[in-house]
Amino acid sequence: DVPTCATMTSRNTLFLSNLAFSTTSAQLEQVCSDLGPVRSCFVVTDNWRKSKGVGLVQFATQMDAAAALEKLNGFVLDNRSLRAELATKRAPAAERRQKKEDEEDRAKEAAEEDAPNHQEKAAADALTQPDRTRKKKKNKPEDMKTIVIANLAENTTRADLISLVQPCGAVAELEYPVAERPYTAFVRFEAFKDARAAIGTLDQKRLNKQKLKVYLKGLEGHNKLRKHRLIVRNLAFTATEGDVRQVFQAFGPVLEVRVEVNGRGKPRGFAFVQFEKREHAAAAMEKINRAQIKGREVAVDWSVPKALFEEKSKEGAEAGEEEDEELDEAEGSSRKKVAVGPAEIDDEADGNDDDDEEEGGRQGVCVCV
Questions:
Q1: Is 144 in contact with 137 (CB distance < 8 Å)?
Q2: How are beta strands 229-233 and 210-211 bridged, if at all?
Q3: Is the pLDDT of residue 95 over 50?
Q4: Euclidean distance between CA atoms 43 and 54, whole angstroms
Q5: Helix axes 192-202, 158-165, angle to 10 degrees
Q6: Is the pLDDT score of 339 beyond 60?
Q7: Average pLDDT, integer, range 107-115
Q8: Which of 97, 125, 173, 263 has its CA 20 to 30 A from that of 49?
Q9: Are 83 and 18 in contact (CB under 8 A)?
Q10: DSSP character for 178?
Q11: CA angle, 29 as apex, 23 and 33 as ends, to 5°?
């Protein structure tokens, strides 16, 4: 049989594989030059000039290539055992295009032959599993297009709310007043992007002299989105939700900001920030952790359920007590432990001493004196 262009091999060119990614063309050429006269030698790289772990070397004669083939196969370079073989000539461009077109035609013919079977199967599935089909068509839950506007003034009217939300996008439904939730309204938009934009625009805005609290209704009990939630600790008592939102929204859409307060309405020194996407939350945590907000260095971390946080805090406290006891015994000292409030004393902390920070705001520390 007469070989085609696609199967003919170049008798004086070797294809080397299993190269170390650190091996350079110069190193490879130095090794091959010891085996015979080399016309060209290079390591194959990608678009970013990174090695693909293979190389090509062209010798002056077929005899040199044959001799080098035996010596290079199994040769150890940069702690890698090389594999060598005669290089295969690449088919001409016209032949490659024709081959690709033939493969596409065969795939299209096979798909057309299988089409009736797929249609029959889809029809059978629709009859036997109608509920599952309906669920797949549902892209966004209604709650993910609905915002909650809370802390409304008592004299707020539907006309006030319509004028407030209409500039944010197409409104599908306005529910006000909401049963069992006084001073609250639900606004459902036609598109999720409009609901998301409305949160950034309306949260902390004043209506009838009242500062509004606006967030996505879908956050209520939506466990998947809770994975995109951060906690900001050691927050200045003067920092508002607007201050926190302004810092974090530079990294991506923020669906909710909540500064925690105690029973008397005073800040507890920490806040929660809810992002739409996890990668935005991760980027914000990396950049803002240990940065300053309102002149105070904050600690930013992933928010965890209260029960899990308390469990971890208890384990950490027990471990710290055991370590202190070991230090006392080793040094023979008689240090006494004094409990101190916030790690950094702040003049704004009056009235905050007796608060229990359930979700982990400013933590108490143990100072040895």
A1: no
A2: unpaired
A3: yes
A4: 6
A5: 110
A6: no
A7: 75
A8: 97
A9: yes
A10: B
A11: 145
Orientation of helix 25-33 relative to helix 62-72, angle to 10°: 110
Q: Which helix (H) or strand (E) holds 125?
A: helix 93-128
Q: Which residues pair with 342 in a beta bridge?
A: 364
- Per cent of the chain over pLDDT 70 is 70
258 touches 241 (CB < 8 A): yes
Q: What is the pTM of this model?
A: 0.41
Which of 76-79's residues contact partners 24+ apart within 8 Å by CB, and which partners? 77/19, 77/20, 77/23, 77/27, 77/28, 77/31, 78/19, 78/20, 78/22, 78/23, 78/27, 79/20
For β-strands 206-207 and 210-211, DSSP reports them as antiparallel
Give me the pLDDT at residue 328, please: 52
Lowest-confidence range among 60-74, 83-97, 203-217, 290-304? 83-97
Q: Which two tokens stand for residue 80?
A: 């890698």
8-state DSSP, 363: P
CB 229 within 8 A of CB 281: yes
Q: What is the DSSP string of 205-272?
A: -EETTEE-EEEEGGGTT-HHHHTTEEEEES--TT--HHHHHHHHGGGS-EEEEEEEE-TTS-EEEEEE
Which tokens sit at 53? 């772990």
Give the integer Cα–Cα distance in Å for 320 and 301. Answer: 21
Could you tell me the two tokens for 278? 């996890």
Task: Look at residue 22 and tell me whether its pLDDT is greater than 50.
Answer: yes
